[in-house]
Prior knowledge:
With 491 residues, the chain is of the alpha/beta class. α2 packs antiparallel against α11, α4 crosses α5 and α7 packs across α8. The strands form six sheets. Strands 2-1-21-20-19 form a five-stranded antiparallel β-sheet, sandwiched between helices. Strands 15-6-4-3-16 form a five-stranded mixed β-sheet. Strands 9, 10, 11 and 12 form a four-stranded mixed β-sheet that branches. The chain contains eleven helices and 21 strands. The protein folds into three domains: 229 residues, Beta-lactamase, CATH 3.40.710.10; 119 residues, D-tyrosyl-trna(Tyr) Deacylase, Chain: A, CATH 3.50.80; 64 residues, no CATH class.
Amino acid sequence: MLKHLIPFALVVLSAPALADAPPASTVKTPTLQQEVEATLAAAPQGTRFGLLVVDDQGRVVVSVNPDQRFIPASNTKMFTTAAAYALLHGMDQPDEQGGTQVFLSPGKGGADVVLFGRGDARMSSAPDCKINCLAALADAVAAKTRRVHDVIGDDRLWPDQRWVPGMSWNNIPSDSGTAVGALNLDDNELPIVVTPGAVGQPPVVTLSPYYTLRNQALTEAPGGKARLYLERSVNGFELVLYGTIPADAQPWKDRLGIDDPAHYAAWSLKQMLEARGVRVTGKVAVRHRRADLIDKAVGEGAVTNWTVGTAQPLARLVPPPLADDVVIINKVSQNQHAQVLFRRVGQVGGTGSEEWGARIESQLFVKAGVPRAGFDFSDGSGMSTYNRVSPRAAVALLRWIAVQPWGTAWYGSLPVAGRDGTLKRRFIGTPLEGNLTAKTGTLNATNALSGTFQTASGKRFTFAFFANDVPDGASALPTMEAVLLRIAAAN
């Protein structure tokens, strides 16, 4: 009897489990929204994501925290460059308004040379410079006189606000956080090259004499990696180099920020004048406009007119079109140029201050239909951690740009995946290579990517994607790229 009962019992016990299992045909396939949410949930723990993807009619395709506010990093540059196109005239014409001027002005010790900045970011002192060159201004002075007293850098067109609110202090000595003013030269950066010497001896350093160098570094035995460090006090001129570099290492290169661009420009002009046989009997000096005078005597819609007395300029540069600079700003994410453009926007009915730049942009974007709760800006480059943008605000901006007369030119300034700019090495070998056009953003614990791409079926999507609070040592980029590739393939 037992031989018959045991199999029967097994069948009875197994029957309920079989009855509960749904037919294979009724298993639900996850939606695209659910797939995206699952992928984001598997990202480094603690990362906060915001994503909005819409089709060409503005219909939502995928949405994750679309109204939360995120640090946008260099996605800030989208707003700055769009505001410039909307508010500054003649973007595709030579920049008549921004060219640096040089004056000869009577002084106590003789004629002073005054270099007056008008808000250009691109003046160059490079030996091979062909356009917008400081050398042209030096030639004009040398053709007029063989003796001058002081050489003065004057950046009073804008208040003296060299660094943006909310920028990390450790960025100040670097080219990412160099100072900004109305008078700028060589991207307000100086290159440094460190080449190994003999073992046990200091390396050889190539550096402009604008800074003095205390070389405490040593060349060590071959093998290993260079471990070099630079220190300089804010507004200081002594640079301390320490650490080690292997004897077989390639030259170590970096770019240093300049704390007083007006002073550096005047100093550089002095070197050029002396090289042309002009005797400089005085000193290098600067004229700054106090930051506490930002709004004094300036009403709504008024512009303070800062000039160099009644003197006429001896010479004036005419920089290339600002549209060319927008390409530089967006393609390679040039911080200093973006910040100068932000201050130029702040001159439209304002003083050129940080505050006026933010105010003018806010008014513009609200009129454009960008949700006011979705953005706040303290700078134009994205270096400030005070900036905030929601995915919905970024998408609204991008869709507004697309229908502007200058929209095609603006979109042409963005990096293209796998092709150029900050996206040159991303999405290679995927369907988004050569397809996705977007502005990148990277800052401490932050990644951003906003733009457009075409899907597998030929639809055009606009998107904004932010990752904040990325854990130290982790990266959100693989997750973000996987999500975008999945969305492109699914539509």
